[in-house]
Each structure stands twice: as C-alpha cells, then as structure tokens.
C-alpha cells in the first residue's frame, strides 16, 4: 500500500517537457531510413551511368585503338602547394572530429543524467530523479542513430555505450528505487530490497556481457 501511494504521487509530478523527447528516436530513425534510401538511389544512378559509358565506349569506332595506345607521359613541373589547401584540410579534419565526438557526447550526457538522478534520489527529489532517468534513456537511444547518420560508428563508441548502459539501465534505476522504497529501519524488508537491487544490477551486467560477445552484435 505504501508503494502504491508513492507511485500515485510520483507520476503526476513528472515534467511534461520530457515526454516530447521520447518522439526524437522515432524521428531520427525515419531520417536515417530516408538518408539510406537516398544513398542507395545515388549509387544506383552512378552504376547506370557507368554502364552506359561502357556501352558507348565499346560501340564508338576508334576508341579501342586510342585506348590500346597510351598517351605519352608529359613531365609536369612541380607545383607549389596552394595557400588555401592547408586551412581547408584542417577544416575537414575538425568537422570529422566533431562528427566522431557527437555520439560519444550523447553517451556521456546520458551517463551524467543517470548519475545526477542518483544524487536527486539521495535528496528525496523523486520527480527530478525520474525525469533524469527518462532523459538518460532518451540520450542513450539517440547516440546510435546520430552515429549512423554521421557515419561515425566506431568500436570505441560501442564500448563506451555498453559501459554507459550498465549505469543508465542497471545501477541508477536500482539506486533510485532503493532510496525511494527504503524505510530506513534496517529490518528484513530493507535487506531484501537491497538484495533485489543488487541482483538487478548483476543481471544487467550479465546481459550486456552476453550481448557484447554475441555474433550478431549491432
């Protein structure tokens, strides 16, 4: 009865703005699918263009002779590097670095939300703790979509996401629930509650380890 009363008080206090974040993974998934379709269309057009060029070269008279006799190699004078090439290369490297850092930033943001949720639970701020758990779940769902959209999928990002999942979906929810349901009396009920939270975290760790070694990972 005490748990049911606490649930009824906690749910209406959730920030309404966080509920709109749940739709972001779905929108990103649609954008990712549209981008993949556009890439496939461009590849198909390139293949068709190459096929038409090959047919045109085979049917054009004199092409085989000109292709059989390679042109004489001309000695080109050494070119001096252009002034704008170095800044342009640095700009491209900076953009690539930002693309690689964006998914990891979302993963670290989710980790920060889950850790702050535990701090809010210690302060008995249950609405803020629940909202931060939801925000961590949303950020964790976005990092994979952003990595695929930016073509920034790396082994480092996958391992960082796996470690963050243990905290976001294992440790943080268990600690928040323990702080919320603990009566502070140290009786048998509190001991059973703590054992349940520990078992939940261990189950999450085992599930993540099994997923990481599975052949069809990702």
Question: Care to give the gist of this entry?
Answer:
Belongs to the CDP-alcohol phosphatidyltransferase class-I family. The chain is mainly α.
General description of the model:
The radius of gyration is 28 Å and the shape is elongated. The protein is mainly α and 218 residues long. α2 (24-59) runs parallel beside α5 (126-149), α4 packs antiparallel against α5 (126-149) and α5 (126-149) runs antiparallel to α6. 19% of the residues are buried. It folds into 2 domains: 27-63; 103-218. The protein has helices at residues 2-10, 24-59, 63-68, 85-122, 126-149, 155-181, 188-212. Helix content is 76%, strand content 0%.
**Morphology call:** elongated
Strand portion, in percent?
A: under 5%
Structural class: mainly alpha
Q: What is the succession of H and E elements? A: HHHHHHH
Which residues form runs of ≥5 with pLDDT under 50? 1-11, 63-68
Helix content: over 70%
Distance between the termini: 42 Å
What can be said about the biggest beta sheet? none
Quaternary: single chain
Mean pLDDT: 78
What is the CA-based Rg, rounded? 28 Å
Total helices: the number is: 7
The number of E-state strands comes to 0
Number of domains: 2
Coiled coil: 28-57
Subcellular location: Membrane
GO molecular function: phosphotransferase activity, for other substituted phosphate groups
Pfam families: CDP-OH_P_transf (PF01066)
């Amino acid at each position: 009865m005490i748990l049911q009363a606490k649930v009824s008080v906690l749910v209406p206090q959730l920030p309404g703005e966080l509920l709109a974040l749940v739709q972001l993974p779905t929108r990103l998934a649609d954008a990712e699918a549209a981008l993949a379709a556009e890439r496939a269309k461009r590849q198909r057009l390139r293949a068709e263009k190459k096929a038409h060029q090959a047919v045109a070269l085979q049917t054009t008279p004199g092409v085989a002779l000109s292709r059989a006799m390679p042109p004489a190699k001309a000695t080109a004078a050494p070119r001096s590097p252009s002034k704008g090439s170095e800044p342009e290369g640095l700009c491209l490297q900076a953009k690539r670095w930002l693309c690689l850092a964006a998914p990891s930033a979302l993963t670290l943001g989710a980790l920060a939300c889950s850790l702050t949720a535990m701090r809010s639970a210690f302060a008995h701020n249950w609405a803020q703790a629940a909202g931060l758990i939801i925000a961590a779940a949303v950020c964790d769902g976005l990092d994979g979509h952003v990595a695929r959209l930016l073509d920034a999928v790396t082994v480092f990002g996958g391992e960082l996401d796996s470690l963050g999942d243990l905290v976001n979906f294992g440790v943080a929810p268990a600690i928040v629930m323990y702080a919320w349901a603990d009566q502070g009396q140290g009786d048998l009920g509190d001991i059973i509650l703590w054992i349940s939270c520990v078992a939940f975290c261990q189950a999450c760790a085992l599930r993540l380890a099994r997923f990481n070694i599975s052949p069809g990972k990702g």
